[in-house]
Amino acid sequence: MESSLWKSRHIANCLELAILLESGAHKPGNVSVVTNFEGTRYEHFLASAVAVAPSLEYAAMRGIAVSKGEIHVGDVGVGRIIEDCVENINAWQHGGNTLLGTVIMLSPLAVAAGMSRSEKGIFNAAELRKNLRLIVESTTPEDAVKLYEAIRNANPSGLGKVSDLDVNSPDSMSKILNEKISLYQIFKIASRYDTICSEWANDYTITFDFSYPYLTEQIKKTDDPSVAIIQTFLKVLAEYPDTFIARKTGFEKAKEVSAKAAQILRLGALETSIGHESLCKFDQELRQESNLLNPGTTADIISAALALCVLSGYRP
Fold first, then answer.
1. What's 81's domain CATH number?
2. Which of 19, 47, 72, 82 has the fewest CB atoms within 10 Å, counting from its CB?
């Protein structure tokens, strides 16, 4: 029988591996093992992956405590876990915001894995999803306040402003607490313009129903995780305009980027010479204009899909 300590560490290892695999793959417009941004390098992502592992292990332990009836699911403290991840990332590297979207996606998944049964460390995706839904729907106003603090500490680019509950408004956190607005409710509001929030609010639809099955198929087809990640990245980007790009340059530009990703897939992407050539040009185009066209949200989705693969038994 798995001990709680072994299980929590195993879950953290699975998620850390997913982050490392995603970070290293040469995805267009992103930092990778062969490409850097000014001020943000691949090494910053490596350090960040190491930095978040203890918080993800703690998240898994909280999930285990829920499964044993020791705490209520609403007392897990997902918001604090995300905030701790950001604090640790900032302490371990100087490359700015590297994994905010990723840890927002993976923190509740770590809790869900802790709540779920496993057979020799292998988890069932359907049970993970069921528990994940319970966790995000049980978040509290306190979780929301902690998430706001985490966002401020991460200081992501392209955040913009909203008319109500703006993360940079000094009145937002008091309103959240006074009106008892949960983190899940805030993400439901923000789901109209942010894919990460939409995933929380809509049962991780893109992750479970689209990205994870396609990535699993590509891994079996190519037997090369880097190629599978890049092909899946293009597929997700083609189908779902990147909201990180949209926040910085507008939704029409984000749709143009998605259209180019779809065209590269039609040309065969990494499977053909013309597709590969088009992918290289696409990568160069996305790196112009101070990386305003960085599909960062798509990368976060891929990290979550990879996490499901690793939790489900995939090993590179």
1. 1.10.4200.10
2. 72
pLDDT at 84: 98
Q: Which domain holds residue 19?
A: 4-311
Model-level pTM? 0.96
Looking at the domain assignment, is residue 316 inside a domain? no
Consecutive 10-residue runs of the chain (316 residues): their mean pLDDT?
91 98 97 90 97 98 98 98 98 96 98 96 98 98 97 82 80 94 96 96 98 98 96 98 95 97 97 96 89 94 98 97
* Adjacent-strand bridge partners of 37: 40
Q: How many CA atoms lie within 13 A of 64 on its CB side?
A: 18
175-212 burial, b at 16+ Cβ within 10 Å, e below that, comes to ebeeeebbbbbbbbebbeebbbbbbbbeebebbbebbb
Q: Report how far apart the first and last C-alpha atoms of the chain are (Å, whole number).
A: 25
What is the number of domains present in the chain? 1
Tell me how far CA of residue 142 lies from CA of 77, 107, 178, 181, in angstroms.
Answer: 8, 16, 11, 9
3-state secondary structure of 16: helix
Residue type, 120: K
What is the per-residue pLDDT for 165?
85
For 71, phi then psi, to 5°, come to -140, 160
List the structure tokens of 168.
Answer: 């940079």
